[in-house]
Each structure stands twice: as structure tokens, then as C-alpha cells.
Design brief:
Strand content of chain B: over 45%
Helix content of chain A: under 10%
Number of helices of chain A: 0
Structural class of chain B: mainly beta
Largest interface: A-B, 57 and 60 residues
Shape of chain B: flat
CATH superfamily of one domain in chain A: Jelly Rolls
Strand order of the largest sheet of chain B: 4-11-6-9
CATH class of chain B: Mainly Beta
Strand order of the largest sheet of chain A: 3-10-5-8
Radius of gyration of chain A: 16 Å
Radius of gyration of chain B: 16 Å
Number of strands of chain A: 10
CATH class of one domain in chain A: Mainly Beta
Largest sheet of chain B: 4 strands, antiparallel
CATH topology of one domain in chain A: Jelly Rolls
Structural class of chain A: mainly beta
Distance between the termini of chain A: 19 Å
Oligomer: heterodimer
Order of helices and strands of chain A: EEEEEEEEEE
Distance between the termini of chain B: 21 Å
CATH topology of chain B: Jelly Rolls
Chain lengths: ~130, ~140
């Protein structure tokens, strides 16, 4: 049965040069979600072939993925084809967050050996 | 040159609650990179995303990945993000409404040459703020 949810997201980034120069940016927002069917969260093993992180949603999605492996990187892509429509590349410990208002599935693939991710993938409705 | 190395840090807080106030999940990820001695660029600023598409330059990025943070700071319409000259990419990587942001280590073309980040506003031009920093090669 579809449920209503509230997603809160906050991120801060900073980059510092050895010269002493640094820049930073941050953001936070809330999404009020209505009539949601797909909420997935937890840990997932990513194979060398395409591994489905989230099946195609009706309107769009908000997705967080963190590579928990301590050695190898993973690729995150739209739809289900490795090395195609790549959204991001996560080295060990790195994470990403994105909102996409489309009906594509989200997939991931490991490069060298199976990697475990921490993730959530939440469907968003047409008004969000 | 070692003195030009760049260190990057990202931290976040994400939570989902249901209609009764129950927390479904909560994550607080963070990472800090080792100094990237091949880093050449650190860009940040404000940009008017146009309806016909406009580009955040990556002209001097040295590596095949970049840390990319983009926030829609306008008030009216969504902005789409696309990576041009990225490996086999034809779909957008984000669609952010006013107040929303995108963050990811994104893949560029080979050493980054020829790559750019295209931002396209829906309906009318919208302002975005961004930070771009070289990330180590994968």
C-alpha cells in the first residue's frame, strides 16, 4: 500500500589546496513524498555485471550510494548497461547522492571484484 | 608540484520518516581524500543555467574523474545536469528543483579533456552554484 514520507537531505563539501586556498559549498532540502511504493535501503553486493539498485520508477527517484569496499571502485549508471550512461564512479569509501526525475532504473557494477554498497533508493512522486 | 595538491571532504546527513514520524533510515556518510598531487583545478561559483543549455567548464581538469557539487539556488524551475564527452552517456545525471543539490564523483573523458558539465534550465533561466575539484583517476 502506498505511503507518504519525508526525505531530508543535507550535504557539505570542501576542497583545500596545499597553497592554503580552499572553497566550500553546502545544501539542504526536504522532499515531501506522497503515494510512494518503492523504498529500498540497506546493503547490497555489486557484481562485475550490472546489478539492479532500483527498478524503474514511475516518476523519478532520490538515490544515495556509498562504496563500502576498501580496495576497488564501482560504477553507478542509469538503466542497466555497464559503461553506459554513467552517473558516477565511487572509489572505496566515497558516496554520491542524486535526484533524477525520469523513469530509468539505477544500476551499478564493480570493476575488479564484488563490492558491497550502503544505499537508499526512494521513489519520488510527480509533485515532488 | 606537491604544493598544489588538493584534499577533498564530503559529509552528508540523509533521513526518511514516514507519516507517523517513524524514522525509516538515517545515514551520515563522510569521506576525506588523501592529497591529490595531480590536481590542477578547483572551481566554484555561480552560473546562469539557460534553457538552451550552458556549460560549466572543465577545460583544465587533469584526471578522469571530478568531484561535482551543484545546487539549484533559484526559485522557479528545475535544472538538468548532463556530462558531455563522458563515456557513452546520453542521459542526464540529475534533475534538481530549486533548493535541491547533486553530489557525486563523476567520470570524465579519459584525462578530462573535452569534457564539460552542461546545465539546462526548464522554462526559464535559473541560477546554480557549483564546486568542481579534480578527483584521482580510477
Amino acid at each position: 500500500m502506498p505511503q507518504n514520507y519525508t526525505l531530508n537531505a543535507q550535504t557539505s563539501v570542501s576542497a583545500s589546496s596545499g597553497t592554503g586556498f580552499s572553497q566550500s559549498a553546502s545544501g539542504n532540502f526536504t522532499l515531501n513524498l506522497t503515494g510512494i511504493d518503492q523504498v529500498q535501503t540497506g546493503r547490497l553486493d555489486i557484481a562485475l555485471t550490472d546489478t539492479v539498485v532500483m527498478a524503474a520508477p514511475t516518476y523519478g527517484k532520490a538515490v544515495y550510494i556509498r562504496n563500502l569496499d576498501d580496495t576497488n571502485f564501482i560504477e553507478v549508471h542509469s538503466a542497466g548497461v555497464v559503461d553506459t550512461d554513467v552517473i558516477g564512479i565511487l572509489e572505496p569509501g566515497e558516496w554520491m547522492f542524486f535526484v533524477l526525475r525520469d523513469t530509468q532504473a539505477v544500476g551499478a557494477s564493480a570493476d575488479t571484484a564484488v563490492c558491497t554498497i550502503e544505499y537508499f533508493a526512494v521513489e519520488i512522486d510527480s509533485a515532488a | 608540484m606537491a604544493s598544489m595538491h588538493t584534499t577533498f571532504t564530503a559529509s552528508g546527513t540523509f533521513s526518511l520518516t514516514d507519516a507517523s514520524g517513524t524514522t525509516i533510515f538515517s545515514y551520515t556518510p563522510s569521506f576525506t581524500t588523501a592529497p591529490n598531487t595531480s590536481s590542477q583545478v578547483l572551481y566554484s561559483g555561480e552560473h546562469l543555467a539557460q534553457t538552451g543549455g550552458s556549460e560549466l567548464a572543465l577545460a583544465d581538469t587533469s584526471d578522469d574523474r571530478a568531484y561535482l557539487f551543484v545546487k539549484n539556488v533559484d526559485t522557479d524551475y528545475s535544472v538538468e545536469l548532463d556530462l558531455t564527452e563522458q563515456e557513452s552517456t546520453s542521459k542526464e545525471i540529475a534533475d534538481i528543483k530549486p533548493g535541491e543539490f547533486f553530489f557525486a564523483p563523476v567520470e570524465l573523458n579519459s584525462d578530462g579533456s573535452g569534457s564539460s558539465i552542461q546545465v539546462t534550465a526548464a522554462t526559464a533561466d535559473q541560477k546554480v552554484q557549483y564546486l568542481i575539484a579534480d578527483a584521482i583517476n580510477n
